Amino acid sequence: MILYHASTMYHLLYCIVHKLTVHENEPCRLLLVESIATQKERRRLLGRLRGRGWFEQVNFIPEGKLKFGRGRGLNEHSSDKEIEAAVKKICRNFALWFREDLRSFDKIYAAADQWSFGISLLYNKVPYIYMEDAGGMLSQQERYLAITKGFSPTNYYISEYLGGAGRNDIVTKKLCDLACQQPGFADERAEDFSIHKALREKIPHHIDDILYFYRLEKIEVQDDERYGLFLTQYIKTMADWSLDSQECLTTLLVDYICPKHKLMLKAHPKDRWLNYRRMFPHATILPNGFPAELLPFILDKPFDVALTASSTSIGGVAPFSTHAYNFGTEIETKWQRLHLMAAAVHVLKTLGIKSAGVRCMNEEQMRHLLDVNGISNGNEALIDGGLEGYHDEVSLAPLTLLLQFDESEHMAVCDAQIEVKLLPREGSILLPAKFTIYATCDDAAMLEKLRSVDEKIKLKFSKAMLEIKGVPA
Fold it and tell me: Which of 188, 220, 369, 390 has the least C-beta neighbours within 10 A?
């Protein structure tokens, strides 16, 4: 018997696809952490899973009940003795519930090994195959552990103590989508397994059955439309738990990246608080109860743009998108910088600049904004964010734009200034803001153009106007 373990909808899809690809004719059992769905949804999910017959047995682990027996929660001051005591209680409670020898299974596939099942494997040194938490997360271990610490400090400290998240030597393999990992990633135990490739190349005959399980139907799209996809995150995995901040971030990214696209929005399965229909009245709001990795199988046309603040699901839809933009976790708390970055891009666009370099700032974010506006990597201009201090050698390009993210710093020398104002309209939850772009340039004609810049960007979904205006000499 083969045993699978999952705690998210992504894990569940991964287990289903892996089972049908690698172990289709072998008996398999599935354990699900109960937090994967609400109590009402769990009953429905269990019925549907049992109805498909993919797994001989499916059970929900009562994680909530098991944790009550572990004692007081752990924190950074907890001693090894206290952590060891909590681990023993968790293992004892899990064993009383499971009532089977974990070593009796031929193979064990475990995702999210910080829960009671994974803790039991780690503490009892039962070998298992680790499955990454989402496409590309194996190479983002620090981020994954930070997310764990955010929603369950006790599980985080136990994971650190036992070497969880696939770090323990008892892990025989680490299944992951190698194409989604960060540049430079290397792990001798990593083994490639891609949901997208498996469904396309190995088990295409199971696609319709899987879509039926998730109650998905094919979506007809128009050939003459450019489609943009936005993927949201579960707010409890973000650095800022404010709904207002999440709404501002979401609308601004759409306004700055794909305001003219036909928008489709796919919410995280646990993202239930924001009213996306109100925020994007004409968008197609997709159901949130299925993993985004299935999107390529319900549309017959690739997305022109796939966009997210920091959803890990972006890797799963990137192969089905012309452009995939992930702004990373930094944007979750520093989304106000988008205004100044977008203003700098529009200044370059107004001047007819076709290529630009970037330094001393989040280059990936800046590159996304440049790319969507048709400005490639080059040396016609330079955008300097000043996050490592402003440099004297600003003549590396004919034109340098110095962005003042921190109003406490002031440029002593510049050839031109551009004022940027954010003006919220009625109904906007954004606050007014002012920024300054400093420019250095030796070309008199270019300087005159800079001083005469007068641009207005309408932020339709954020309900605001961004004014960009050169300061006369």
Answer: 188
Indicate the SS3 state at residue 191: strand
Are 296 and 359 in a shared domain? no
- C-alpha 163/C-alpha 157 separation (Å) is 10
Q: Three-class SS of residue 171?
A: strand
Domain, as residue range, for 422: 337-470
Asked if 109 and 150 sit in the same domain, the reply is: yes
Residues 58 and 204 in one domain: yes
Give the pLDDT score at 311: 86
Question: Are residues 235 and 246 in contact, defined by beta-carbon separation less than 8 angstroms?
Answer: yes
Contact 381, 397 (CB under 8 A): yes
Tokens at 346, concatenated: 């529009």
Q: Which of 332, 352, 386 is the last residue in one of the domains?
A: 332
We report the CATH number of the domain holding residue 233 as 3.40.50.11110
Exposed, middle or buried by CB within 10 Å (0-12, 13-18, 19+), for 397? buried
Strands (E), 244-293: 262-266, 284-286
Which residue ranges in the chain fall short of pLDDT 50?
394
Helices 153-162 + 80-98 axis angle, to 10: 100
> CA–CA separation, 168 vs 86, rounded Å?
19
The pair of structure tokens assigned to 414 is 């510049």
Q: At what angle do helices 363-372 and 337-351 cross, to 10 degrees?
A: 40
Count structural domains, the chain: 3
Q: Are residues 317 and 447 in the same domain?
A: no
Q: Same structural domain for residues 30 and 173?
A: yes
Both 93 and 196 in one domain: the answer is: yes
292/21 Cα distance (integer angstroms): 20
Rounded to the nearest 5 percent, the helix, strand and coil shares of the chain are 40, 25, 35
The alpha carbon torsion through 244, 246, 248, 250 (nearest 10 deg) reads: -150
Instruction: Tell me the pairing of strands 433-441 and 416-424.
Output: antiparallel
